[in-house]
Amino acid sequence: MTLSRHRHELYQQVRNGVGASPLVPVSLANGCRVHCKEEWRNPSGSHYDRVFVVLLEALEKQGRIVPAVTELVDATTGNAGAALARACQILGFPCKVFLPEDVPFARKQQIMGYGASLVETPERQYVKGAVRELQRYLVKARKERRRVFCLDHSRQSLAIEALSPIAVEIAKELDSQLPDFFVGVIGNGLTIKGIGRGLQSFAPSLRIIGVEPVRAPSTYEQKYPGRFQRERDEFPTFAHHGLLGAGAWGVRFPFIDPDDYDDITLVTQDNWLTGQGFLKDVGVASGRTSGACQWVAHQIAQTEDDLTFVHLCYDHASKYGTTSAKNSAHEEILV
Ligand SMILES: Cc1ncc(COP(=O)(O)O)c(C=O)c1O
Questions:
Q1: Dihedral of CA 308/309/310/312: which sign?
Q2: Are residues 30 and 58 in the same domain?
Q3: What does the pLDDT read at residue 239?
Q4: Residue of 314, 316, 330 best suited for mutating to test ligand 1, as the one with most atoms within 8 Å of CB
């Protein structure tokens, strides 16, 4: 189905300001450097703005979603929800976002600001709790024969395609100095597949380093069974942590493949705060996962000369700032 001119223009409006994010260089030890791709500059503040416009346009063309009729829903730790809510507001879809109660208030405020309704899911259950509540809602909606469509963005191969231009932009800009490493946190695997794997078609020897919180080393355990316990003399936990967007314990994602990673580094809160500090020094007020990737690049740079790294600045520090008294769990000092 082709879209009317008006619908086409609305999709153009959603696309305005999406993509072509700048790369910020940071000098590291031993003549190494890391380039940070500022995806937080997209309109709703993350790489997900690239994803939802592509998903929604494809679904509308297929006639599977109808503006003003179909309610669009998804589970998120905030960034995907904000991008979905923004797209829905411009395109006229009702939108409902399932989000853990204990994420920073700034995230809820942003999503509601785009006119979406919010379902707060049990605290300390992170993505697992949000997905469970969303599934319950979908069962109920089906029984009541309501027009509800779940985007399920973390399971769509089109989402990987939508992220792949980031790899092209990086390769074009770095041109003669293609990276040796892509460092990316492991959330649902989309950015590793779409960007890390994409970059390997330009730089075949590129190594991909995954980053997970030490409190939820799910992919690490799959890649290195038993290593966590051997090295730390304790069993891994799969529990509450503050690295929002990463380490979604208790949920299986089809695009997480331990073989995609040359290595996986576990990080503590101290590590990502240190990385955020490095980025602050070059004028980038980054979110936590960006800080974690930055810290990992600094660590590897200690071991070899003249390496080039690249990572995303997935989101901005302001997405973590505001806390209501009740919603403070993710602001705690965690190991
Ligand atoms: C802040 C942040 N960092 C990193 C990621 C990880 O991206 P992915 O799991 O899609 O590769 C996400 C995803 O939600 C995120 O919100």
A1: negative
A2: no
A3: 85
A4: 314
